[in-house]
Each structure stands twice: as structure tokens, then as C-alpha cells.
Fold Rv2525c-like glycoside hydrolase-like domain-containing protein.
Amino acid sequence: MRSVIRKRRNTQGKHRKVPALAGVAALAATAALGGGTGAAAPAGQLVSYHGVSLRVPADWPVIDLARQPDTCARLDRHAVYLGTPSDSAACPPRIYGRTETISLRPAAATAAPGSTVVPRGIPEAAPRTTDHTGRFALAAAGVELTTTYGSRPELVDAALATARVTERARPRAIREPEAEPAVSTKVPGTFHGYGFDSCAAPSSATMDAWLKKARFRAVGVYIGGGDLGCPNQPNLDPAWVARQTGKGWHVFAMYVGRQAPCSGEPYRISSAAKASSQAKADATDAVEQAKHYGLAAGSIIIHDMEYYPRGGSCSTAVLRYLSTWTATINSLHYRSGVYSSRAAAIDELVAARKAGRYRMPGTIDFAQWDKKPTVGSSAIPSNYWVRHRMKQYWGSHTETHGGIKLNIDADWLYVH
């Protein structure tokens, strides 16, 4: 596979007022979690974390990441995650699809860019956003709350309706995030060589160790998208980007937006007729996220279009979507890229370019797992995307450098 917190559109939810902490009782017993069916559902299980309590469906696993640091906090399965994901988490580099999850972790003194500081209480519902994610800094408990949803956001709404700040909470002053990072960097810059991508951005300590021992000098990061199933990024922020680029890393940004309507992915293009409007929404969101992560205008943002069976209206929808993605990204002063299997969207783009149809991305990133670090391919004419190619030449595998193990995809880049 190829996850910024952004300034979200249409996400202003109401926030419930709660009494002073000294008088807050423990969580009351029930909430219907029936997903809007009208029938009463079991009360579910009680979850408590640092003074925040809520009830979730009984079949959702509740995972304490401090006790289970090797567990991947993936967003494609119903779950509640407590604590901060670890670099040692056993995440494959590609996780797609997003469903209903809730994450609670200690809040930082300054809220992440694009998140909302909630002085009192807890949000009443999951905000409806382009990438199906909401993030809140709960000052009354010093906890960061993140929600994701797929097709049933009402499940998260029902859980939040039961949420309370209890007497165990320890309030913390949390500063509002800055509207834009103080420093921004154009990425990936001019680079010819080895790169890798992993599900979540590694810690700076890991990046330093790999810089000393590994052959890689480029790193891919996922900045968002409604089909992204990777954990919420515990390390990725503008300071991380500035630090890694300052050390010599070439960062390349990926966004997992809508997928082909004939694919098995949950977040799909609705139809060929809606492809352009949905691409415009995703591209606009991708640029907002890029800005919040400190990626300057002129940076390449790569849309991750996973494999799909080509043909008919499905191919038409994909090409319309990617054409509008490129037009929108470029109009917002960033540079468009597309990642896909060489046998899927890349072959479609080659054929469309020969026919002179659709807007073409400035950079292609193709998956061809032959373990050959090169950007050449007999299926792509040599005069297409010259010096604007990337190749994922080796899929999911584990490498250890400087004593630190990561599950990665390996890439070869030739970009300007």
C-alpha cells in the first residue's frame, strides 16, 4: 500500500456540556447500539481510559497498545485502541478500507493540526468528513479521541452518546493547533535511488537508524484518504517532515482516495457520472492534508489506486476520476501523481495518453514486483513520464537495519 490531520470541512459537531469534574459520576449503564434499526440492542461493554468512559458493541475488541505493542492499530476492523501505536507494531505496509473504530491516547500539549480542542465534555457524534476521520483533543481529560467510520457511522455515534468524563480524569491545558506549520518543504525533490514505504511513518529514532545503515534515502508517507486502513499516524506531523528532510530523506506523499467501482474496496467511486465530483473532493482534501503536514506547494501528491479488473464503465470511471484528480491537484499548486498496479490504472493511463484523452498525472508510481530496482517497463513507452517515474519493485517484506525491523514495500524513484 501506499495516513495529516487537516482543517476539516463541514465537521462542526455539537459538544455536550458536562458538570464540573468533582461531581461527575461514573458512566451510566446503557445506550442502544443497534445501528439505527429501531430495535434495542445490548448495552455493550464498558471501556474506560484516563477518565473517559464509553460503551461500545460487545464484539469489538478493546486493545491496550501499551500491553500489546506488537498489535497493529488497523482501521479496517471494528476495534477500540487504547494508547499510542508502537514502531514495533506488526503492520503490513498496505492496509485498505476504513470502518468504525475509536482510539484514545494521551493528548499532547498542542493539538495536532486540523484537530478540534474540546474544552469540556465529549463530541456527540462522529464528524462526517471526506476521509471519514474525526480527531479531538479532550482538555477535560487530557485525552486525544479519534474516530473513523465506513458505512455505519451511527455505530460510533451511539458509542459517543454514552461517553462521559469521569472523576478519574486529569484535565490538561491543550493549545489550539496552528493554522499552518511554520516551516514547509517541497517534496520529494529531485531524487534517483532507493525508497520504501510503510503503513505508518516510523519514529525519528527509527529513521535515524535506517539512515545510517540502510540503502534507502526516500520514504513514503500516507497523508489520508477514505480508503486508508493504516493506523492513525502517531509520529507524522510537520516537525517530523522537517526533521527527516533536513537529515537528507526525500519524503513522498500518498493519499488513498476512492477506488475503482468494480474493485472490492469499501470506499469506491460511485459511478462514472460521479467520478469527477468525487475526485475533486478527494483532491481538495489531499491538498489540505499536505499543507497541514508541512508539504509545500509544488510537492507531489500520489493517489493510490489499487488493482481492479479493467474494462467498460469501470475503466471510464477510473480515468475520469484520475483526470479530475490531476486537474484539481495542479490547480491548487501541487503536482499530481498516480500509483497503481502496472496491469491496472497504469496500463489504462498509457492507453489514454496514446489516444490523447484525459488529463495525465505528472508522475506515475507503478507496482511491478520483479525485485528489479529500475523504473523501466516494456509496457510503458520510454518517452512517457521521463524522469517522473517511481516503481514499487518489491511488495510486503521485512527488513532490519540498525537493529530495527520494519515491514515495508521497496521502491525505486527517478523524480524531478
Notes: The first strand starts at residue 45 and ends at 49. The radius of gyration is 21 Å. The chain has two domains: 44-165, 191-415.
